[in-house]
Amino acid sequence: MSIRRQTHIRTSIKHAVEDILRDYPYLPTYIKNRREELLHPIEDVDENVGGSRGNKINKPQEQMIITLDDDRQLHALERQQNTIAAMLEHTDHDTRVILKELYFKRYPQYTMGGLAQQHLIYCSRASGFRKRDAFVEELSKNLGMYVAER
Known about the structure:
elongated
């Protein structure tokens, strides 16, 4: 008989990952808005009357490319979206149903128990929680956020 040691991530990390999952349906909008902010920044008025040159690139297209490539927030949003999409593609039906109902819907209709009782998932309530927790833990690892509880 082998003893299987279950690992757990810190509660704060779990909550952060769950917040990322709740934002997943809105990530395309967040990414689009961030790109717009970077491509069309609010222009600062130069009150400098002197003739000194700034160290900014003079070609706007090159500046936009550099800005888009260097923006950490944009990269984080894109990474979250791509990581979740890839994981959803390779997960089982029950886990997808659980995530869609509990995280992706603005107003969830069912709890984990309701999903099992209504036969929307083909596992028990307890198994549903294990599947959800495994997905959240794996996502935290893939996003570089994993820290085990002590």
